[in-house]
Amino acid sequence: MPPNSKSWNEYRKFVVEKLEGHSGNFDEVFNRLRTIEVELAKLKIRAGVWGLCAGAIPIAITIVVWLIVKK
Distances from the Cα of 29 to the Cαs of 2, 24, 36, 37, 55, in angstroms? Predict the structure, then answer.
């Protein structure tokens, strides 16, 4: 029990106040986690686009070389 506590009701109030304070902290952590999830999704999309571009370059070079050799 906390110091200066004289009864169960006081201790119960103390515990409830502490839990309510932690609830606000959990909300903040949840909001930050949601922001991180959104940023991670953006990075995954960017990585996919860069991968597509990087994969398209050798294909484009191959087509150009094939067209030159074909003539």
Answer: 27, 9, 10, 12, 39
As for how many domains the chain has, the answer is 1
Nearest by Cα to 31 from 42, 23, 21, 20: 23
Rg (CA), the chain: 30
The pLDDT tens digits for 46-69 are 999 999 999 999 999 999 999 999
Segments forming the whole domain that contains residue 51: 1-71
For residue range 12-45, what is the model confidence (pLDDT) as tens digits?
888 888 888 887 788 889 999 999 999 999 999 9
